[in-house]
Amino acid sequence: MSLPLFNPFDPQYVADPHAYYARLRQTVPVQQAVLLDGQTVWLLTRYDDVEAVFSDPRMVKDPRNACSPEQLARMPVRPQSTRYARTNMLSRDAPDHTRLRRLVSKAFTPRMVEQLRPRVQAIADALLDAVAGRGEMNVIDEYAFPLPITVIAEMLGVPVADRDQFREWSDAILTAIPPQPATPAAVAALEGLAQYLEGRFEERRRMPTEDLITGLVQAEEAGDKLSKDELQGMAYVLLVAGYETTANLIGSGVLALLQHPDQLAKLRADPTLMPSAVEELLRFTSPVKTSTLRFAAADVSVGDVVIPKGEMVLVIITAANRDPARFPSPDTLDITRPDNKHLAFGHGVHYCLGAPLARLEGEIAFGTLLRRLPDLRLGIASEALTWRPSFGVRGLEKLPVRF
After folding, report:
1. Which of 22, 94, 112, 235 has its CA 20 to 30 A from that of 215?
2. What is the rounded distance in angstroms from the CA atom of residue 212 to the CA atom of residue 103?
3. Which helix (H) or strand (E) holds 360?
4. Which parts of 233-367 are beta strand (E)?
5. What is the Cα–Cα distance from 333 to 109, expressed in whole angstroms?
6. Residues 317 and 50 sit within 8 Å (Cβ to Cβ)
């Protein structure tokens, strides 16, 4: 029997993945499918299954820790330039993952992130100052994207003036994250970013400062803490992951609030609901649709299905966050939702390192927008909005608003 094709680039899927996932949860919540590159994968859509896989040490990130030589030989050969998308801490297992995560974890603790609050607020205000007299803007290009990328660029110590180039590279690179085939544009973007970062590394070797790039370079120079490839991979993942999730949260979150005027009014009336609102927007919009790939290092039971050793697993965060078995009325936006233990940042040892920063940026971005633009409204019909075609993330192409 032939397996169904999982094509996250199908226009109907891109427009409304929730209906597709609801069918999977109800009929085949643990399903084998074929990806566009011909590989076979297990798709998991129930909350309990996704949470369990996130926590299971037998579900590993590096296929070399799970697959037989024969299974490894059947995997697609990817260009050397894509190794930074694969050999970073998101795709590593202990002890390497533990070591790499520890190198940057101090910069993202809640205490350290809270110290960034005045700067994040200043960036949000400056972005709105720039559009205040126009009465309209594109939330994605003029607010949701520049806010988090300015923050992470300043933390890393790379010029904020290069942020448009970062975005261009990132958009292309996200199309090459396994299991997606690496397009020529993605390969060129990875090579361009690698050359750019190497220039920043050399600069910091000559002139150290108090930024994350300097810290990573010094760790590399200390010997066994960071190899050259790991240095590139760490900078890559911090730069791309450091803004992509938050930009999509802000853009999709603004749209969700505008489409649910009762929730928007409730939040305007009581700004103390903002932390709860951010959690609900993370659950409801799921800026990251899927986790990076995992591989079964042993036969693993998921529900009433056994996933054989060496086979590939893709957990669908979007589906888990709308599972009615975990969240009552999951398709309803409720900014006061209690017990909102969503999986937008993952779970377990790979829980998103930048979660405290994303939450802070989300709170400030939404709060500042609602406070300063009391007449905020959509600039076009919801039906005219388009979503970026991407395997792993969900974000709007544009979000025109008026105020």
Report:
1. 94
2. 10
3. helix 355-372
4. 294-296, 300-302, 305-307, 312-315
5. 29
6. yes
Query: In this structure, what is the dihedral angle of CA atoms 127, 132, 137, 143, given to the nearest 10 degrees?
Result: 20
Task: Let me know if residue 2 belongs to a domain.
Answer: no
Which is nearest to 169 in space by CA: 195, 153, 189? 189
Give 210's contacts (C-beta < 8 A, 6+ positions apart): none
> pLDDT-derived band of residue 49, with 50, 70 and 90 as boundaries?
very high
pLDDT tens, residue by residue, 139-171:
999 999 999 999 999 999 988 888 888 888 887
E strand or H helix at 30: strand 30-34
**What is the spatial distance between Cα 233 and Cα 212, in angstroms, rounded to a whole number?**
13
Q: Percent of the chain at pLDDT above 90?
A: 69
DSSP one-letter code for 70: H
Residue 6 lies in a domain: no
Q: Is residue 121 part of a domain?
A: yes
pLDDT band per the 50, 70, 90 thresholds, residue 225: confident
Q: Angle, to 10 degrees, between the axis of helix 184-206 and the axis of helix 228-259?
A: 120
- The end-to-end CA distance of the chain, in Å, is 55
If phi > 0 it is left, if psi is from -120 to 50 it is alpha, else beta; for residue 98 that is: alpha
Residue 229: pLDDT band by 50, 70, 90 thresholds?
Answer: confident
Residue partners of 296: CB distance under 8 A and separation at least 6: 58, 59, 66, 307, 308, 309, 310, 311, 313
- Residue showing tokens 């979007």: 318
In the chain, the number of structural domains is 1
CATH number for the domain spanning 171: value is 1.10.630.10
